[in-house]
Specification:
There is one protein chain. This protein is α+β, with helices and mostly antiparallel strands and 237 residues long. The protein folds into 2 domains: 119 residues, no CATH class; 72 residues, Beta-clip-like. Helix content is 48%, strand content 12%. It contains 8 helices and 7 strands. β5 and β6 form a beta hairpin. The protein is globular. The chain starts with a strand and ends with a helix. The protein binds zinc ion. Zinc ion (ZN) binds next to α8. The site of zinc ion has 5 residues, from α8.
Length: 237
């Protein structure tokens, strides 16, 4: 049997014009030079704004209409799930020490951009580190379709709940992007109580050691999936 689970993107909330104008004026004076730093700034900025919106909704919980209440519930659920994700900050900085300077640059940039806005107090070093530590290894790539080995990665997005899918070198579900939605579809029959696995990359046909090296370098874990265990045993025999 094939099943499909759908995940809705979180609703967008418009910002008051005066805040947008302050941010635009701030942006005119500061910039980042590397695309990766822009990406990181965008990720952290998104969470800072959502943290602010969540705090505002929670502060006025008794006055919310049904639409605002549904946004509050969706945000609150996403944040709880996001907080439970593993942070890979230490492994990331150890593997790429230059990232430390880069992250400091991004932090200073965001502090300058949020200056004189309500978001400034929500951008803290703790939140910044938490977001980028959890983004590493948990974000999903958004790939050009159809996906093949030379497809271009258009960006990445954090979908907190499906980040809990573990990897296996023989996956039994796969992600499919539908616009801003991500669907997870079974690729084979699955027994009751069997764990659902996705593949973290397109390298299932590689030799086991090469595959494990890629998984360790990019996702910081030693793969112990049934396929790896079976192939490592065959080599040792
Ligand atoms: Zn494996």
């Amino acid at each position: 049997m094939s099943t499909t689970a759908q995940l809705k993107p979180t609703a967008n909330i418009g910002l008051p014009l005066d805040i947008v104008e302050t941010i635009s004026a701030n942006l005119a004076n500061f910039d980042l030079h590397k695309p990766a730093e822009h990406d990181n700034a965008r990720i952290v900025a998104g969470i800072v704004v959502k943290t602010y919106v969540l705090a505002q909704l929670q502060a006025h919980e008794n006055e919310l209409d049904a639409n605002a209440r549904s946004i509050l519930n969706a945000y609150a659920d996403d944040f709880v799930t996001f907080d439970d994700l593993q942070s890979n900050e230490q492994q990331l900085i150890q593997s790429f020490p230059a990232l430390l300077d880069s992250h400091i640059t991004v932090y200073k940039f965001l502090a300058a951009v949020f200056d004189r806005t309500p978001f400034a107090s929500y951008l803290t070093p703790a939140l910044f580190r938490r977001v980028l530590g959890k983004e590493a290894g948990n974000a999903f790539g958004i790939w050009q379709y159809p996906v093949f080995i030379e497809s271009e990665c258009l960006g990445s997005s954090i979908y907190p709940a499906p980040s809990f899918f573990n990897h296996a070198c023989e996956h039994n579900i796969e992600k499919r992007r539908q616009g801003r939605k991500m669907e997870f579809v079974t690729t084979r029959d699955i027994d009751a109580d069997q764990e659902l696995y996705i593949s973290y990359g397109m390298f299932e046909d590689l030799e086991v050691h090469e595959r494990q090296k890629m998984l360790f370098e990019q996702w910081h874990f030693k793969c112990g999936c049934p396929k790896c265990e079976r192939q490592l045993k065959e080599i040792a025999a």
